[in-house]
Design goal:
- It contains 14 helices and 15 strands.
- It is of the alpha/beta class.
- It has 2 domains: 8-128 and 265-351, Rossmann fold (3-Layer(aba) Sandwich), CATH 3.40.50.10090; 131-261, Rossmann fold, CATH 3.40.50.
- The longest helix has 13 residues, at 105-117.
C-alpha cells in the first residue's frame, strides 16, 4: 500500500466502523452522498494507520468507495475538497492545520466541510448519536400533538435535532404540521433550528440568535407578559432542566416531552485514538458538554485528556466551556454568539494566528 505523507491537505477524515452501524462504510458513504450532499466525484481514499503515517488501501471517487474492496487495515475514509489546493494561500488560512470536529455525524460533517474549505484537515468524530425514544414516550408526544390546538399556546423547539424529531412525530401521527399546530406560537433556538422548522412549514414567531437556553427564557417570558402560557417542549430526554424550570417558576404550564435521545456511539477507536495521540491536533471543537463527555468515553479518559491537553480547545458557549474546565482543560476560544458558524469562525481566527476570546 502507498503511504500518504505531509503536507496535510484540505480534506475530511471519518472513522470507519466494522459491522453494521452509522459509520459502517456503506451507511456512511450513503449518508455523505444523500443526506450531506457531498459531491459524488469528490476524491476519496480508504486509509489505514501505520504509526504516524496514513496508508492508502484504495483511492477513487467518493461514489465508488462503497463498492471498493475493503482491506483489514482500512479504518478511515478520507474525502478531499476537490481543487482547494490550487486556490491562493490567502484563501486557505488553515492549510496544514488538523482540526477535530465533534457532534452528531451530520452536524460534524457540515462543520468539517467548511473548515476544509479554509484548508484544514478536519477529523469528523461523531461523539453523539440521535436515537428514537421508547414506544410509550413516542405515543405520549403524538397524543400531545394531536391535542395541541386546545392544550397549548406555544411550542418551543430548542435544537435542530428537536425540530427533526418534531417533524418525524407529526409524520408518524399522520398530522400536517400547519394544521396540527395552527394558531400556536412557534419558538426556536438558533438559526438552523429555525430553518428546519420553516422547511416543515412552521414559520417561527420567536427565536434567539444563538443556542443558549438563557436567551430563550428571557424572550419567552417577555412574550408571555400578558399571562402565563401553556407550552409544549419536544426535546432531548437528557436536556437540561433550566428552561422548563424557569418557565414553571414563572407560572407557565409546561409539558416537557422526550422527542429523541442522545447517546454515545459504540465505536472501537483504539487505532484512530492512537494515531491522533501520536500526530496531535491543532484544535478541537466542542458544541456541547455531551459531545465532550462522549469524546472522553470513546477514547478513554486518560488518552482523551492527554490529547486535549496539547490542543487548542474551542467551545461554543459558557456551558460547554464550564464542562471542559471542570476536567482541568483550558479553553482557548469561545465566540460571542453561540452558534456553530460562530464557533468555526472563532477557531479559524485562532488557528490563523489571531486572538479570539469572549468572556463568559
Amino acid at each position: 500500500m502507498s503511504q500518504l505523507h505531509p503536507p496535510r491537505r484540505p480534506c475530511l477524515l471519518f472513522p470507519l466502523q466494522r459491522g453494521p452501524g452509522p459509520l459502517s462504510r456503506e451507511t456512511l458513504i450513503r449518508s455523505l452522498l444523500v443526506d450531506q450532499e457531498l459531491p459524488p466525484g469528490a476524491r476519496a481514499a480508504l486509509l489505514g494507520v501505520d504509526g504516524p503515517r496514513l496508508t492508502s488501501a484504495w483511492q477513487g471517487m467518493l461514489a465508488g468507495a462503497a463498492e471498493a474492496t475493503m482491506h483489514d487495515e482500512a479504518c478511515l475514509l478520507q474525502v478531499e475538497r476537490g481543487n482547494d489546493e490550487e486556490r491562493p494561500a490567502a484563501a486557505l488560512p488553515l492549510l496544514g492545520k488538523r482540526v477535530l470536529v465533534t457532534r452528531t455525524l451530520d452536524e460534524a460533517t457540515a462543520a468539517a466541510w467548511q473548515l476544509g474549505g479554509r484548508g484544514a484537515e478536519a477529523i469528523v468524530l461523531p461523539c453523539l448519536e440521535i436515537r428514537p425514544v421508547a414506544d410509550e414516550e413516542r405515543a405520549q408526544l403524538q397524543l400531545a400533538l394531536r391535542q395541541a390546538a386546545r392544550r397549548y399556546d406555544i411550542v418551543v423547539v430548542t435544537s435542530l435535532n428537536g425540530a427533526r424529531a418534531l417533524g418525524q412525530a407529526l409524520q408518524e401521527a399522520g398530522l400536517a404540521p400547519r394544521t396540527a399546530l395552527a394558531g400556536l406560537l412557534i419558538a426556536s433556538v438558533g438559526p438552523r433550528t429555525t430553518a428546519e422548522l420553516d422547511r416543515l412549514g412552521l414559520p417561527v414567531d420567536l427565536t434567539t440568535p444563538d443556542h443558549r437556553a438563557e436567551g430563550l427564557i428571557a424572550a419567552l417570558l417577555e412574550q408571555g407578559r400578558a399571562g402565563p402560557c401553556r407550552a409544549l417542549l419536544p426535546r432531548a430526554a437528557e436536556a437540561r432542566e433550566l428552561l422548563p424550570r424557569a418557565l414553571v417558576e414563572a407560572g407557565w404550564t409546561v409539558d416537557d416531552l422526550p422527542a429523541y435521545r442522545t447517546e454515545w456511539p459504540q465505536l472501537d477507536l483504539t487505532v484512530l485514538g492512537g494515531w491522533i495521540a501520536e500526530v496531535g491536533l491543532d484544535a478541537a471543537l466542542f458544541a456541547s458538554p455531551s459531545a465532550f463527555h462522549g469524546f472522553l468515553a470513546l477514547l478513554g479518559h486518560r488518552q482523551a485528556l492527554d490529547i486535549l491537553g496539547r490542543t487548542a480547545i474551542c467551545a461554543i458557549g459558557p456551558t460547554t466551556a464550564t464542562a471542559l474546565r471542570a476536567a482541568g482543560l483550558e479553553v482557548a476560544a469561545m465566540p460571542a454568539v453561540h452558534t456553530m458558524a460562530a464557533l468555526i469562525e472563532a477557531a479559524g481566527q485562532l488557528l490563523a494566528g489571531g486572538s479570539w476570546w469572549k468572556s463568559d
